[in-house]
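Researcher: Structure for this, please.
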Amino acid sequence: MAILVTGGAGFIGSNFVLDWLTHEQQPVVVLDKLTYAGNPENLKSIHQDPRFTFVRGDIADRALTSRLLAEHSIQAVVNFAAESHVDRSILGPGEFIQTNVVGTFELLEAVRAYWGGLDASARDAFRFLHVSTDEVYGSLDADAPAFTETHRYEPNSPYSASKAASDHLVRAYHHTYGVPVLTTNCSNNYGPYHFPEKLIPLMILNALAGKPLPVYGDGKNVRDWLYVTDHCSAIRRVLAAGKPGHVYNVGGNNEMTNLEVVQTLCTMLDALRPLPAGRSYWEQVTFVKDRPGHDRRYAIDASLLERELGWKPAETFESGIRKTVAWYLANPQWVEGVVSGNYREWVARQYGS
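Model: Predicted structure, C-alpha cell format:
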C-alpha cells in the first residue's frame, strides 16, 4: 500500500517526499499540477526509485484522484497542494479559492468515496492529513501568547482565508462523515528547494545577484521559523500516531523579525561569499512600501505535539539557516533553472502547455 502526496513537487511537498523515502518503505505517489512553483527538478534524485510514481494533475480533478486512490491502494493522503503566496493572493485571489477551497473539497469527496469502500481494517488504518498554516489564526499583539490549536480563526488575507476554509472543510468531513482526518498548522518554513518569491530564498538570491534586498515596512513583522525537514518529521509523526479529528500546531521555536532574518543572512553571506573591498550585503537592504493587511506577528505553541507525540524540532534557526544558505550556494544550477524559467519550459515540452 502507498501514500498519495498532493503538491509533492512544491517546496515543502518535495522535501517531504524525499524525507519519506529516506525513512519509510511505503511507496509514494505524487500528484502535482506543476504550476509556477511546482518543480520536477526537486524530485530528480528519486526519479529512478521504484517506490516513486509521479502524476501530473489537479486535486480538483475528482475522477483522477479517485483512480489514483484505487489503483495504488492508497493508505494515506498528505495534502500539500495549495496556492500559498500572500502577495499573489492579494493581486489575484481567484486561483486561491479554486485550488485551496474547491480543490480540497473535490479531494475530500474522492477520499470519502474511496475510504467508504474499504474493508474495516483498511478503513481503520487510513488517514487524510491536511497541511495548513498558522496564518489562519490571524495576527498577534507583541505580548500575546502564541497560537494554540484552539485559537480562534481570524484570517486576514485572501490566502489565509482560503486555507481557513479548507481547514473547516476537513474538520466537517470528519465530524459529519467520519473520515479519519488530521490537520497540521505550521509556521514559516525555510530550507532547500524554496521558490524564490518568499523572504529567505529571495534575499539569498538577490544578495548574490547584487540586487536590492526589499524589506516591507519597518521590517519588524515577526514570524516563527521552522526548518523544512523538521516539519517533515512532524508530519510523519502525526501521520503515524495522531488522533483522527485532531489539529496539531508545528513550530520551530524561532520568533524573529524580518529584519533580524535579513541581518542574519547578510552576516552569513559576508562570511561565506564575501564582497570585494570589505563591503557588506547589508548595504543592499531597501525598505519598500508595506503590503496591504500585513499581519504583524505569528507565533506557534507546539507543546501539544511534543506532549502527546514526543516531537520537537531538531534544528535551531542558526543551524537551519546555515544549512539553507550552504544549499543555495552549492546548487547554482537549480537556482538558474528556477529564475530563468527553464524548468517550466521542460514541463511544457514534457507534459504539454
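Researcher: Any notable elements?
Model: Residues 2-190+228-251+294-314+341-351 form a domain with the Rossmann fold fold (CATH 3.40.50.720). The two ends are 32 Å apart (CA to CA).
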